[in-house]
Write a structure and sequence with these properties.
Elements (H helix, E strand, L loop, with lengths): L2 E4 L2 E4 L5 H4 L5 H21 L3 H8 L3 H8 L8 H10 L24
Antiparallel strand pairs: 1-2
Length: about 110
C-alpha cells in the first residue's frame, strides 16, 4: 500500500480489498464471500424474513443465518452462498473472459 500525506494527516491508500489491506490469507475469497453475504442480508431484510424463515428458504440452519447476519460467513462456501441467493430470488451469472494480466481476478457485482 502507498502512504500519502494530506495536511498533517498521513494515511495509506487501499488496494481495493480491505482483507488484503489487513494482510489476511485468502483475501480474494473473503472479498467475494463478503459481497455475496451482503446481498443475502439485503435480501432477507427486503423480504422481511425472520432468521428462521430465511433459514428454511435458504436450506441452512437458523444459527448459520444468525452468524451471517453478524458478518460470520466463514463457515459457508461461495457455492453455498450463491445457492442461498438463488433460493432468495436472485439469478447469478458467471462470466469468463481472458485477461491481459498474467493472473486473472474474481469480482462480485450486484445490481
Amino acid at each position: 500500500m502507498a502512504r500519502r500525506k494530506t495536511s498533517d494527516t498521513e494515511f495509506e491508500v487501499s488496494c481495493g480489498n480491505v482483507f488484503a489491506d489487513l494482510g489476511l490469507p485468502d483475501a480474494e475469497e473473503l472479498k467475494i464471500k463478503s459481497g455475496l453475504a451482503i446481498e443475502i442480508i439485503r435480501a432477507i431484510r427486503r423480504l422481511g424474513l425472520t432468521q428462521q424463515e430465511a433459514a428454511q428458504q435458504m436450506g441452512v440452519t437458523q444459527p448459520k443465518v444468525s452468524g451471517l447476519m453478524r458478518g460470520d460467513f466463514t463457515n459457508l462456501s461461495e457455492t453455498k452462498l450463491m445457492e442461498c441467493l438463488n433460493r432468495l430470488g436472485y439469478d447469478i451469472e458467471i462470466r469468463l473472459q481472458p485477461t491481459a494480466e498474467p493472473v486473472g481476478r474474481r469480482t462480485v457485482a450486484s445490481a
